[in-house]
Specification:
By secondary structure, the protein is α/β, with parallel strands linked by helices. Helices cover 44% and strands 16% of the residues. It contains 16 helices and 10 strands. It has an 8-stranded parallel beta barrel with strand order 1-2-3-4-5-6-8-9, surrounded by 7 helices. Helix 1 crosses helix 4, helix 9 packs parallel to helix 11 and helix 14 packs parallel to helix 16. The chain binds ligand G3I. The site of ligand G3I has 8 residues, from loops.
């Protein structure tokens, strides 16, 4: 809860700044006909005390349409790739913060909070770490040094950090990352302690996918965070990535969020997108609008759910088609940056 007051203050500012209302949203006849009163997702979300964010590819901020939607519709931005290890420390001790700094600058100019993603992850991990042949003590030092430099660089600028990302297999066993196999599970507690020392301001999260419903993996996550809390490890939040499939929002999403909230943690929907088999059609898009609304409603029903980040603005920029051939249309804006029915679904569910 360390940054809660700051985030709330930003939310209040956001709600009061008509200039940040989206011209695009106001011109949308469908939205006018719906009777929605909020001019943007960020206004609607702020009015209900939550943030609404998007992942940003900072290379696309030079596209005015992209930048305008990012600025006007969202109150939080996450670096899609720019704060990951392969970008920030491509070789040992050589740091590159240019993309992250651009994002922080964009966020400060548009009254966004910044969500840091991610300090320790098995993917987008440079070869010098993955294949460095370090022993446990050495790798732990490499990890702590990385956290110290990266979280230290951005200290005071970020509302959240995903300290560790995707530490589990889907069956709830520990993913056999180089950190797990070399250091053991204690690398997770070590990472949180290092992040807390480097940035005492950010809320510190553990983030994963396929943990939205109650299942073996979310049970393992629950057990792990319970144990971290028992050990006094500085953990503040759980991120449910929420890369979902059309028509398959887990019915127990709210119940699952609530059990983490009951541990005293914040819960964040960190990477929401809802993919479908292509081509999209009006029936699928209507279902997608219901699905997005269902996720927002579940978050709104859990006071500890502080916000929702969608993973990218438009279908044009989404990671989905590259990884799931034949699937896509997962975002809230289409390939031409026009809002889809999912936009109204989210807006209405936020109370707009
Ligand atoms: O930067 C290189 C560029 O130099 C090279 O020319 C180009 C050629 O393919 O690749 C570029 O790197 C790509 C990188 O995105 C930056 O654009 C990688 O190939 C590509 O694999 C990478 O994809 C990212 C993916 O994480 C990597 O796992 C996606 O953009 C990003 O949306 C995705 O995000 C993850 C979250 O971090 C964690 N949760 C799952 C989520 C979706 O996979």
């Amino acid at each position: 809860m360390r940054r809660a007051a700051v985030v709330a203050a930003v939310g209040a500012l956001v709600a009061g700044f008509a200039v940040y209302g989206s011209a695009q949203a106001q011109e949308d006849p469908a939205r006018d006909a719906s009777g929605a009163t909020a001019a943007s997702l960020r206004e609607a979300a702020a009015a209900s005390g939550t943030f609404v964010g998007t992942a940003i590819n900072d290379g696309l901020l030079s596209n005015p349409t992209y930048a305008n939607i990012a600025a006007s519709e969202f109150s939080s931005v996450t670096a899609e790739n720019a704060m990951k290890w392969d970008t920030t420390e491509p070789s040992r001790g050589n740091f590159n913060f240019s993309g992250g700094d651009r994002l922080v600058d964009f966020a400060n100019r548009n009254l966004h909070q910044v969500y840091g993603h991610t300090l320790v992850w098995h993917s987008q991990l440079p070869g010098w770490v993955q294949n460095g042949g370090f022993n446990a003590e050495q790798l732990n030092q490499v990890m702590v040094d990385h956290i110290d430099a990266v979280a230290g660089h951005f200290s005071g600028e970020l509302a959240y950090w995903d300290v560790v990302n995707e530490v589990f297999n889907d069956d709830g066993s520990m993913r056999q990352s180089v950190f797990q196999t070399t250091i053991g599970t204690e690398y997770i507690a070590n990472a949180f302690r290092a992040a807390d020392a480097a940035d005492p301001w950010a809320n510190l999260c553990i983030n994963d996918y396929n943990v939205e419903g109650i299942n073996a993996k979310s049970d393992a996550l629950y057990d792990l965070v319970s144990s971290l809390l028992d050990q006094g490890v500085p953990i503040d939040c759980v991120g449910l990535q929420s890369h979902l499939i059309l028509g398959q929002v887990p019915g127990d999403l709210q119940e699952n969020m609530q059990r983490f909230a009951d541990l005293g943690l914040e819960v964040i929907i960190t990477e929401l997108d809802i993919r479908m088999d292509l081509p999209a059609d009006s029936g699928k898009l209507a279902q997608q609008a219901e699905d997005y609304a269902e996720v927002v409603t579940a978050c709104m029903n859990v006071p500890a759910c502080e916000g929702i980040t969608v993973w990218g603005i438009s279908d044009r920029d989404s990671w989905v088609p590259g990884v799931f051939p034949g699937q896509g249309a997962a975002c809230v804006w289409d390939e031409s940056y026009q809002p889809k029915p999912a936009y109204d679904g989210m807006l209405t569910a936020f109370g707009g």
